[in-house]
Amino acid sequence: MITAKTDFRSILSLDSELSQIQDVDLLLERILLEARNVVHADAGSIYVKDRVKEKTGDVEKLVIKYAQNDTIQKALPEGQKMIYSVFSIPIDEKSISGYCALTGKLINVPDMYQIPESAPYSFNSTYDKISGYKTISTLTIPLITADSRLLGLIQVINSKDSDGNVIPFSQDDEFLITHFASNATAVLQRAYATRAMILRMIKMSELRDPKETGTHVNRVAGYAVEIYERWAYHHGVNSVEREKFRDTLKVAAMLHDVGKVAISDLILKKPARFTPEEYKIMQHHTIYGAGLFDDSQSEMDSICRDIALTHHENWDGSGYPGWVDPFTGKPIKTGPGGEPIGKAGQEIPLTGRIVAIADVYDALCSKRVYKDPWKEEDVLTEIRKLSGTKFDPELVDIFFDILPNIKQIRALYPEME
């Protein structure tokens, strides 16, 4: 028999497990999953407080980060992830989530279709009508730090009993979710600190290279994780290894162009295409980036080094920097003229092959000082055309299989104006 006491023990053991997750986005996704498990919820969403650009200026809102729904997920083909709408909610009394964020109080609603008229908030059933899924019971809990800052909130939906019937969330559920939220908030704060340090490194690159923005690296890293997850599924990688590796990959992929800090401003900030000589100098950012991780202390360092060094290698061997020592820049394998031979096919680490597609896709979709963003159909045609020459053909097929997930990540991290 499962009791509140046994569930509370599982919450305490989860703390150390969640602490091992380094990336904020992956942690948010895992927090939502475990919150649902704790109170036996069929579905749920997790929101973060963020500043959203509007016509009147920046406004603080709740932005959805992840949504999960077991009932909808079971109806999808195996290996496919549920797609959800990306939207923001005002922090006010009109919605349950907004009211929870505004007041900092837990809200337990037994039946969303029977909310008393005296309640300040109401329920918008539009999503239920679109999805065909009926939201009945909900439990909404704020994620508030020890110094009273709101990070976001969790909303779990449709508690289920052992027979699969939807029931209201109980007082035991309130107790459990409150303690879980407290632990999750502390872990989330640590992950935000890690993300902040990484973004400061990227900000250094951004100060040098206007193309290297926080939104760009977040998108590239997000695309990379989605591609890896589907690759891992196809290759039978177990869930434990998959979870661990995608967390490391997410952080490492954000640092793919960190070596640009060593490139001259005359080249980085040039508002036009490079000359052949300038392009040759620019290529050295791969070696400089890999050199930052020369004292490898962990798998993270190794993957950061691989990605920085190889994300411009091409499947057919025509990329750069080729077979060079990442710490000295000296050629290891050379052609007739003494130039490094490019790595090709499986010689390129999987992480580098994945980030190559993610980086090119985002660059083509984005505005640059020397170009407007490409039309989506042109970008996709180009990606397909480069299969087998620039990109790993298997990964290109995966990219198109998960294209809805890719577009969803782009919506989560829109281009800043």
Task: Describe the 3D structure.
The chain is 48% helix and 13% strand. With 417 residues, the protein is of the alpha+beta class. The chain folds into two domains: 4-192, GAF domain (Beta-Lactamase), CATH 3.30.450.40; 209-412, Hypothetical protein af1432, CATH 1.10.3210.10. Strands 1, 2, 3, 4, 5, 6 and 7 form a seven-stranded antiparallel beta sheet that branches. Helix 1 (4-19) runs antiparallel to helix 2 (24-39) and helix 12 crosses helix 13 (350-365). The chain is elongated, with a radius of gyration of 23 Å. The termini are far apart.
The CATH homologous superfamily of the largest domain is called Hypothetical protein af1432
- End-to-end Cα distance: 55 Å
Structural class: alpha+beta
Please give the domain count.
Answer: 2
Radius of gyration: 23 Å
CATH topology of the largest domain: Hypothetical protein af1432
How many helices in DSSP terms? 16
Mean of all residue-level pLDDT scores: 90
What portion of residues is helical?
Answer: 40-55%
> Approximately how much beta-strand content do the residues carry?
5-15%
Order of helices and strands: HHEEHEHEHEEEHHHHHHHHHHH
* Poorly predicted parts: none
For the record, the CATH architecture of the largest domain stands as Orthogonal Bundle
**What is the name of the CATH class of the largest domain?**
Mainly Alpha
The biggest sheet amounts to: 7 strands, antiparallel
Number of strands: 7
Task: Please state the overall shape, judged from the principal axes of the Cα atoms.
Answer: elongated
